[in-house]
Structures are given as structure tokens and as C-alpha cells.
Write a structure and sequence with these properties.
single chain, mainly beta, 24 strands, Beta-galactosidase, Chain A, domain 5, 8-stranded antiparallel beta sheet, about 350 residues, 3 helices
């Protein structure tokens, strides 16, 4: 079942079959990416593919995130592969519950659109054990784009590649800035999307200590749009970047998944699997949690904002939230104020 939300010139659709958001439109802009095979019968009928890959689109809530090598859940967990039941709907807000939450947890979802913002709140209750999680919004860039971030204190890459032989960034790095070593000996500035490279890449950015609000901004070149992703850094201390630009040459990707960037905020040890995240690791050594302990009630808040790019803007320097106003500061001195639901964060 598809559930529609509307507010002003904004529109969103939630697919309750797996809880993702395949459509979000704001003033004619389409900020989120949907895979090109979502309506292909041969892909949808393939029993070897998890539902999350068959219907890959927009944003979805992963729990556990990525590979579960402890309990046998499908990639990104039951929250990304099983139905969500609608519990309420009021035009621009809808509420859902996932009955198959991991390790006995109950997971509730609230999605709201408000002007240019799409807000989500997940409440995780009960259950027993440790689990990873993340949001999984994806954007598409026809001609690349420029990224900006709230202050980070570390960047790491996984010890194994996403797709053997197709990584631009060298493996198993720990850096204190936004520049990663490449296998060819050069360095890559993470603020630039690698549009000219056939790659499948992944890295994890760690928030600076003491941050109250964390963010990632993508300024899409061809689309002339600002996409701002906001999170609670205490609950989600890492941002994982997934670059998928044509390198996956197997079903269902078949080399046609290009220009895609996943901005995956959560608690996890990159793509290293649930087992590694539950043990002492490079992030826990920095006092960064890589799992969420179930049993208590946890509230996970996440928001995205889509805006037309002001003339001359190329990079954000900072984002502040004051009452019901977001203030975006461009690196060369520009400023823009955007209405934002007060009290969400």
C-alpha cells in the first residue's frame, strides 16, 4: 500500500510493503533517488534478491544496518524488508509500526512533511540485545555535486571493499580530516562527489565531540539544489557515505546505478557487519558507540530539507537552529533562513 502526504507544494509517498519513501517532491524538485529496476518484473520476481534491493528507493530505516552476521536478518534488517502497518494519517503526517522489529523490539515510525522539510521519528521499544541502525537516504546527481559537513573528528574506510577492484579510496584508513588516500597514491577531497570515476565506495565520518546538531549538505550541480540532512549526533554519532557510480555489474545493478550518494546516519561500524560492531573496535576506542542496546525506549530523529540553490552558493560553512528557524551560512558569507518545525530536535 502507498500512503500519500501533502503539504503546500510538497508531496511524499511511503511504501508500507517495506517502509521506504520512494517519492519526495518539493516545488518540482525530486531530492531522493529511486533505482531504475523498481518496476521490472524480472527483478521483482527474483527470489534471490532481498526486498530492500528489489524496491531500492528514497530513504528507509535499517535495523540492523547492512550485514547481519549474528542473527541472519536480511540486509538492513526486518525494518527495511517487511511490511509496516499504518496507524494514523492526517494529510501531512502518517504513523506506522513494524511488527517484525529485530530481537523482539517494537519499532514505530512517524513521517511528516512541513514545507521544504521531511521529518522522521522512529521510536524503538523493548527487545533485548545490541543492534546497529541507520537511516538510508539516497540522492542522485546527474553531473556530480559538492558536499559540506558539520565538524568531524575522524574518517575511516572499511577493511574490505564494497565491490572488489572498484574502490577509489584506499581501504582501512583512519584520518583526522576530509581527505582520503586513494589506491593510486593521490588524495581525494570528500567534499567532491567522484562523478568521473566508475566506483563503488564507502566511508564513515565521526561527529565532533559535544555537537548538538549534525548535518550533511549536498549541492547538486545539474539539479541546482541544496539538500540538507539533519540528525541528532548523540543518537547517531556517525555518517556513512556510500558512493555508487556504475561499478556494480551484477543483478539488479547491471552497471546502471550511477551518480548515487547514500548519506547514512546511524550507529554502526561501517559495512563491517553486526558481529564486529558488537565487539571493541576502532570507533569504540574513541568512545563512539557502534550499537544500540535494546530494552529501553529510544527516540531517533532525522530530517531532510530541499531548497533551490541560491546563486553563487557552492558550500555550507555552518547550520544553526534557533526556535523555528534554520539558518544556513554559505562558505563565502551568504545566509539563508528557512522555517523549520520548532522543537523537533
Amino acid at each position: 500500500m502507498l500512503v500519500d502526504l501533502t503539504h503546500g507544494d510538497a508531496h511524499a509517498v511511503i511504501d508500507t510493503a517495506l517502509g521506504n519513501i520512494p517519492v519526495w517532491q518539493v516545488g518540482g524538485r525530486t531530492p531522493l533517488h529511486a533505482a531504475p529496476w523498481r518496476d521490472e518484473p524480472e527483478i521483482q520476481d527474483n527470489p534471490d534478491l532481498p526486498l530492500v534491493n528489489k524496491r531500492l528507493a528514497g530513504d528507509f530505516f535499517c535495523m540492523p544496518f547492512g550485514r547481519d552476521d549474528l542473527h541472519g536478518y536480511p540486509p538492513h534488517g526486518p525494518t527495511a524488508n517487511t511490511p509496516w502497518t499504518q496507524m494514523g494519517h492526517s494529510g501531512h503526517t502518517a504513523r506506522f509500526v513494524n511488527a517484525a522489529g529485530p530481537l523482539g523490539a517494537a519499532v514505530a515510525k512517524e513521517v511528516q512533511i512541513s514545507g521544504p522539510s521531511l521529518l522522521q521519528r522512529h521510536v524503538v521499544d523493548k527487545g533485548a540485545g545490541a543492534v546497529t541502525f541507520a537511516h538510508h537516504p539516497m540522492v542522485h546527481m546527474a553531473e556530480g555535486g559538492r558536499l559540506s559537513f558539520s565538524p568531524k573528528r575522524a574518517v575511516i574506510t572499511d577493511p574490505t571493499p564494497q565491490h572488489e577492484g572498484h574502490n577509489l579510496w584506499a581501504l582501512n584508513q583512519l584520518r583526522s580530516d576530509l581527505h582520503l588516500d586513494c589506491d593510486d597514491g593521490s588524495q581525494w577531497d570528500l567534499r567532491t562527489y567522484p562523478a568521473g570515476h566508475l566506483v563503488e565506495d564507502f566511508c564513515t565520518l565521526v561527529e565532533a565531540r559535544g555537537a548538538a546538531l549534525a548535518w550533511t549538505c549536498v549541492m547538486r550541480n545539474a539539479e541546482d539544489e541544496v539538500i540538507l540532512v539533519l540528525k541528532d549526533p548523540v543518537m547517531m554519532p556517525v555518517t556513512m557515505l556510500w558512493v555508487s557510480n556504475g561499478a556494480r555489474d551484477f543483478v539488479p545493478w547491471n552497471g546502471r546505478h550511477t551518480g548515487v550518494l547514500g548519506i547514512e546516519d546511524g550507529r554502526a561500524l561501517g559495512c563491517q557487519g553486526l558481529a564486529a560492531a558488537t565487539r571493541d573496535n576502532v570507533l569504540t576506542a574513541m568512545d563512539v558507540p557502534t550499537t544500540l542496546e535494546l530494552s529501553n525506549t529510544h527516540v531517533i530523529r532525522h530530517a531532510m530539507v530541499s531548497l533551490p540553490r541560491p546563486s553563487g552558493w557552492s558550500e555550507l560553512a555552518s547550520v544553526t537552529l534557533s526556535g523555528a528557524t534554520l539558518i544556513l551560512h554559505e562558505a563565502r558569507g551568504g545566509e539563508m533562513s528557512v522555517a523549520f518545525p520548532e522543537g523537533f530536535f
